[in-house]
Specification:
The complex is a heterotrimer of chains A (284), B (213) and C (242).
Chain A: E1 33-42, E2 45-55, E3 60-64, H1 71-78, E4 86-91, E5 94-95, E6 98-101, E7 104-107, H2 110-117, E8 120-123, H3 135-145, H4 151-164, H5 180-192, E9 198-202, H6 210-226, E10 230-234, H7 238-244, E11 247-252, E12 255-260, H8 262-267, H9 272-282
Parallel strand pairs in A: 3-10, 3-11, 8-9, 9-10
Antiparallel strand pairs in A: 1-2, 1-4, 4-5, 6-7, 11-12
Chain B: H1 7-45, H2 51-65, H3 69-79, H4 85-110, H5 114-122, H6 127-157, H7 169-180, H8 184-212
Helix pairs in contact in B: 1-4, 1-6, 1-7, 1-8, 2-4, 3-4, 4-6, 6-8, 7-8
Chain C: H1 2-43, H2 49-64, H3 67-77, H4 87-113, H5 116-124, H6 129-159, H7 171-182, H8 185-217, H9 224-228, H10 235-241
The chains are: A alpha/beta (284), B mainly alpha (213), C mainly alpha (242).
Chain lengths: 284, 213, 242
């Protein structure tokens, strides 16, 4: 097994073909997220075909594009809900599910994989609160059993978060008694309770009634303003993308076709596909 | 190993067991036929609007379903001494399983979309025609896998017929064991024969289920 | 008829003993079956073929070989291999193995029926596989499996009537004794079947209570106390609680 003598670091930054990657905006600092040649197939359908991109620490990046363009797949790969068929993903410079050792792509052991996953949190379209637990129990479950916090400690933090999302009075409620908007705010508190370095937001308002979307987005806006969590956002709420993110990536067929700050992207997109997409979404 | 298992004894036990297997199959087929017809009747009667009809039928179904088949077999056998044991066996198996199958039919009928009833009503079809041409064909399609599974269950419960001395496969093995004072080969073979027959059948039913789903 | 009733009255203590034996078989068998069902059901979903293969084999084997054959095999054949068991242990083992195999399918199906999002949320919170199953998935699958487990429990109760033939004095045995002393087949068997019916009814009630509790814990349906209250819960208070 000569591979074991190879350096532990998957791809030393010196040897990485960094200049070739158009989307890399950071120089010097280790990016929070880095995709290197990531391939993902579902059966015969190749969703991501050698995707390269990176996200700097503290960035708020919105992924836009037609459905099936691979946006959600990127989030799911970052949560290990899907496994890439090729390429590697680095979080904070650490290989996540796979690494290159001795020139070969090998799986990262479960223990290290979990250590990386612990830094990533996710909020889902369908909230996915645990119906067998109260609101508070939903929030303290992972901090207690994954981070090893004492119940009292976890509860104090959970109450702060509930206060922050405006649901302090629902502490002991059953999740099924809450409205969709309230459930989503609990889900945000639950993700934040793990103190993630990276937060993935997967169409968090798509399952909500229009009149309560603003509540949820307000909570997220506040999170964006008061923390330095790196955020990766898939959304159809263009105004929210504009308010919160500092970078927008336009995806089409698993490739980034355009990248810009939100102002530029939404007012003067250059790529034809972006123009078509925004016309369709913004509805005029 | 040779002390506990004798191939010679196994060979001697096999002919009566295979003879019994025919009775086992016969009881299963006749029992299933009775259960399938009676079950459908029960399901239809239980849809009656009158509680004077549904309540007693419901209670009877519940009673038959939650008391042991074994006890029912012996009961009927003792009450009707002039009726051949095999007939008693088939009928009791059939009635017992009719209570299960009626539930399968009921679910199948309930699964026929409301729109089908309404469409039939809009066409002003007569009641019997609605059932025969619209509802039952759709319902029965959906019930086939369920009925198949109960037929397999019944097959595996035919050994209860030993209690009323019908010489099906298991009783044949038991009698062989009683004669030779060694049950090992005969009982093992019967168990394996049940597995050999029921497992492929259940795979077939599962395929049917996937095809119809 | 009054003769029959007085014979029955005199035999009540023996009926009590029979009910105890039947309940020992039923509850003992059910406990064993539940443990096996969980192990085999989870094993059937395992990623490793070394776990999944044997689990599937055991499940199909005990589902396929008929309870009657299994019971008599354990009773007559197993001693030949040097394992001798008491009748009661033999009965509990046969019932537990057979219905454990059926239960494994129920467990497997119920776990599969828990929405995918629940697994994903647990992964996103980095809960480990065992923790995820114990705290998130099984409590939800449990509510789904109870109705099917109730059916199996009643079938297990019915199967326990075989115990008479391995020399146990259960309810079925009592029926035969009653018939001998009254010389009245119809009376004895009607009494006996009614006893089984009552046992099945009580077991079903107990399982329904478990189901109400499990559903209430998932936040759907009323609490057990609300269900057991004699007066119907006014619609307004129910709405207020939601």
């Amino acid at each position: 097994m000569p591979e074991t003598t190879a350096p532990r670091d998957a791809v030393p930054s010196g040897t990485a073909p960094a200049p070739a990657r158009a989307t890399t905006t950071v120089q010097g600092a280790v990016p929070a997220i880095e995709f290197q040649g990531v391939v993902k197939r579902f059966g015969d359908n190749t969703v991501l075909d050698g995707l390269d991109f990176s996200v700097a620490k503290g960035d708020r990046v919105t992924l836009i594009g037609p459905s099936g363009s691979g946006k959600t797949t990127i989030l799911r790969l970052l949560m290990t809900l899907e496994e890439a068929d090729g390429g590697i993903i680095l979080v904070d410079g650490d290989p996540y599910t796979h690494e290159i050792r001795g020139g070969k792509r090998v799986e990262v052991p479960e223990k290290r994989r979990r250590a990386v996953r612990r830094r990533v949190g996710m909020v889902f379209q369908q909230f996915n609160l645990f119906p067998n637990m109260s609101v508070l129990e939903n929030i303290i479950e992972a901090p207690m059993h994954v981070l090893g916090l004492a119940r009292a400690q976890a509860t104090v933090r959970a109450e702060e978060l509930l206060d922050q999302v405006g649901l302090a009075d629902k502490r002991d409620a059953r999740c099924t008694q809450l409205s969709g908007g309230q459930q989503q705010r609990v889900a945000i508190a639950r993700a934040l309770a793990m103190d993630p370095e990276i937060l993935l937001l997967d169409e968090v308002t798509s399952a909500l009634d229009p009149e309560i979307v603003a509540d949820v987005l307000g909570v997220l806006r506040e999170v964006a303003e008061t923390t330095d969590i790196t955020m990766l956002i898939v959304t159809h709420e263009m105004q929210f993308a504009r308010d919160v993110s500092n970078r927008v990536l336009m995806f089409d067929h698993g490739r980034i076709v355009e990248e810009a700050d939100p102002e530029t992207m939404f007012t003067s997109p250059t790529h034809e596909r972006t123009q078509e997409f925004l016309r369709a979404v913004l509805g005029d | 190993m040779n002390d506990v298992w004798s191939w010679q004894r196994a060979a001697e036990a096999l002919p009566p067991i295979l003879e019994g297997f025919r009775i086992t199959l016969l009881a299963t087929v006749v029992g299933t036929a009775i259960a399938a017809v009676l079950g459908l009747l029960v399901a239809l009667v239980r849809r009656s609007r009158s509680r004077w009809v549904t309540a007693p039928v419901g209670l009877a179904v519940e009673f038959v379903r939650s008391t042991p088949l074994l006890v029912q077999l012996v009961f009927v056998y003792l009450m009707l001494p002039s009726v051949p044991a095999l007939v008693v066996g088939c009928v009791v198996l059939g009635v017992h399983y009719a209570t299960y199958m009626s539930e399968v039919y009921r679910a199948g009928i309930d699964a026929v979309p409301r729109g089908q009833w309404e469409a039939a009503k809009a066409l002003d079809l007569p009641r019997t025609r609605v059932w025969r041409a619209v509802v039952l064909p759709q319902a029965i399609r959906k019930t086939l896998p369920g009925l198949g599974n109960y037929a397999i269950s019944m097959f595996k419960e035919t050994p209860y017929l030993f209690a009323i001395s019908v010489v099906e496969m298991f009783t044949a093995a038991q009698q062989f064991g009683g004669r030779t004072f060694v049950y090992t080969e005969a009982l093992t073979m019967v168990g394996l024969l049940f597995l050999l027959a029921s497992y492929p059948t259940s795979l077939l039913v599962r395929r049917l289920e996937n095809r119809l789903a | 008829m009054s003769d029959n009733l007085s014979t029955l009255r005199d035999a009540l203590p023996r009926l009590g003993e029979g009910v105890v034996v039947t309940l020992q078989l039923t509850l003992g068998g059910a406990a064993l079956a539940l443990v096996l069902a969980l192990l085999l059901g989870l094993g059937s979903r395992a990623g490793s073929l070394w776990v999944r293969g044997p689990s599937r084999f055991v499940v199909e084997f005990f589902r396929g070989t008929s309870l009657v054959v299994q019971l008599f095999w354990l009773f007559y054949v197993l001693p030949v291999f040097g394992f001798r068991m008491e009748s009661l242990a033999c009965g509990i083992l046969a019932l537990g193995l057979n219905y454990g195999a059926y239960g494994a399918e129920v467990v497997r199906g119920s776990i599969n029926a828990v929405p995918q999002g629940q697994w994903e949320a647990a992964t996103a919170l980095d809960l480990g596989p065992v923790h995820r199953l114990r705290r998130v998935i099984l409590p939800q699958a449990w509510a789904l499996m109870i109705p099917m487990l109730t059916n199996l429990l009643i079938q297990l109760l019915k199967g326990s009537a075989l115990a008479t033939y391995i020399l146990l004095h259960d309810v079925n045995y009592f029926i035969e004794q009653l018939r001998r002393s009254t010389q009245d087949t119809f009376f004895s068997y009607t009494v006996g079947l009614l006893v089984y019916f009552a046992l099945a009814y009580v077991l079903t009630l107990g399982m329904n209570a478990l189901e109400v509790r499990a559903k209430n814990r998932l936040g759907s349906g009323p609490s057990l106390r609300e269900v057991l209250r004699v007066a119907p819960v006014p619609a307004t208070t129910r709405g207020g609680a939601a």
